[in-house]
Amino acid sequence: MGFHICITNEKVIDISISNGIYGNVGNSSETRSVIWSKLKDLYAVKPNDIIILYVKHPVSKFYGVFQVTSNPYLCNDDLFRDPLEKYPFRFNFKKILDFPVAVPSFEFYSLIESGKIESSMGLSRDVNSSYRSIRQLFESEYKEVLQLFYKYNPKTVSTDFTRIQGKEVICEKIQAREFKAELLANYLKPTELIFDLIPSSGKYALLEDVLHAYIVYNVLHNKNNLKEKLGLSNFNELLLEAPIFKAMQYRSDILATFKQDNKVYYYSFFELKREKKVGLDEISQLMSYLKSFASNKSLTVNSYEGVYISSHFDKDLIDYLEKRQIVEQENIISLYTYTVNNIGEVMIEKKI
User: Fold this and answer.
1) 122-138 in b/e burial notation, b at 16+ Cβ within 10 A?
2) Phi and psi of 42, rounded to 5°?
3) pTM of the predicted model over 0.85
4) Alpha carbon of 276 to those of 98, 279, 313: distances in Å?
5) Contact 48, 70 (CB under 8 A)
6) Structural element, H or E, at residue 18
7) Is 6 helix (H, G, I), strand (E, B) or coil?
8) Could you read off the pLDDT of 206-246 as tens digits, one per residue?
9) Domains of the chain, earliest start first
10) Virtual CA dihedral for 98, 101, 104, 107, nearest 10 degrees?
11) Which one, of 310, 308, 306, lies nearest residue 337 by Cα?
């Protein structure tokens, strides 16, 4: 189960809650890169995940708590009745806990300042961006936010409300390779993307975010044997672009955690490159970040790893890592190459 903060606005929050449909803004005039960035975030959501809605202005507040009831999909209809914006990036949800009083945003940011929330340290930046709308939380962080809802609704029995099942949505399903960003306005009926085949340029993904979306979708939905290939068979949490901690200006493209008895015992940090020959400089920087993180968390060696997925790796780098494994008994870096064939299938191979 995943936990997400979904940014929305005061013009559509009531329609969103009454219909049980979340939508993120978007239109065909946006660049292909921006649209695919939104798709990457959207397809990190799956049925049964928990969401909290964040209205960013005029008064920033959090509304909750809801559960996702559908796969993400595209639909460019006029559901939200906003003359200035469309909200095509969607999924359906239902209320699972009732909190009539919303939580003011300063309470959330106080959790960040106190170090109780680390995954969404960039939320204030994301709120003001044109494309970031969905942020993941660790389960422990969600529980901290949940306490805020109880604080502002002390006399409310959060489970005492008339339950309404989430709306069923019937989607046309298309491969991600078939999706045309420039025709976003034409998707007037619910359309779900499937990530078996992806758009490409030459032998590689069309964009880095396409590769990103492919990996996240297939890991979350356990498709194309990707969880096993990447060593994620028993992962518990998956976060996108998670800042590791305040002292480091570093965001992992994907962070996976492995828990035992509700405690995280292993971290996998993923770096993705669409088409780049990765060498010692890049890996040395990643290793420095990992060791700083491990020191900050008091982690033992081999309780964390860095995973690089790219088109090419320097031979000297592979030789260096192989020798490091033998001499120092350290196995904290994994390298994977990938290619995309002419029909959009992705092939991933572990190099070390």
Assistant:
1) bbeebbeeebbbbbbbb
2) -60, -45
3) yes
4) 48, 9, 8
5) no
6) helix 13-19
7) strand
8) 999 999 999 999 999 999 999 999 999 999 999 998 776 55
9) 3-157+171-192 (3.10.590.10), 195-350 (3.40.1350.10)
10) -60
11) 310
